[in-house]
């Protein structure tokens, strides 16, 4: 049976480290990192994310600024708010919750965020820096995946990594990070031919396609490390009428018989995302103030 990689505990430890570093920044330099989150409209899933972000931001000792705008807000109003946050010295990180309502072009909004404050790492400048080996801000979920992989496997040099999924938020940035860690990287997706065979070559298999339980146990090389980024809500009539539950992109029950280690859903990659958002906010704060984040105590 595969070992389950416990993202919940990992994320809690990371947040504890960050809290210590925030306190250090505060004591030594009088700086309190500030994270601004912009939520337009009232998508229920986004409401939950934003509430959790706000709570965890405060728990690590950072300032949290929440901006809630009505569903019918137009693009110019969002751009105006982003410009004010860019100019605000108390704000070191800006996150605009996606998806945005249809009347707002997300690309325009993301492009307006100061890349130094782009703690989501979605700005084309940060995507370009990642692709060219520069020092920008890295998207949170891929960053969390890399932390768990390094923790579990140590050095990743020479390993075959297969990333199933090609989104700008997970698949593409994660492929760049794995490449930078000296893996041999294949990006596959829902239209790849012989997807099971491609997956069977992977020492590291990352599933980020958004299809519930698509990847089966017999697609997994014996002993491989499997990172399941999928969060899919499916009906769960066994829990009662109208109930649902979360499953990943990997069929966990069959995968556990083949993998060496696997991140479960829920409780794997998910909790790491907000913890990495806080890590990025700390990194952004240090860089904005000309400090080196690696000088902070990692205990
Ligand atoms: N919506 C769901 N997840 C995310 C995220 O990580 N960042 C942003 N900006 N929006 C999201």
Automatic annotation (TrEMBL):
The keyword NADP applies. Residues 139-286 form the Tetrahydrofolate dehydrogenase/cyclohydrolase NAD(P)-binding domain. InterPro entries: Aminoacid_DH-like_N_sf, NAD(P)-bd_dom_sf, THF_DH/CycHdrlase, THF_DH/CycHdrlase_cat_dom, THF_DH/CycHdrlase_CS, THF_DH/CycHdrlase_NAD-bd_dom. NADP(+) binds at residues 165-167, 231. PROSITE patterns: THF_DHG_CYH_1, THF_DHG_CYH_2. Belongs to the tetrahydrofolate dehydrogenase/cyclohydrolase family. This is Bifunctional protein FolD. It comes from Iodidimonas muriae.
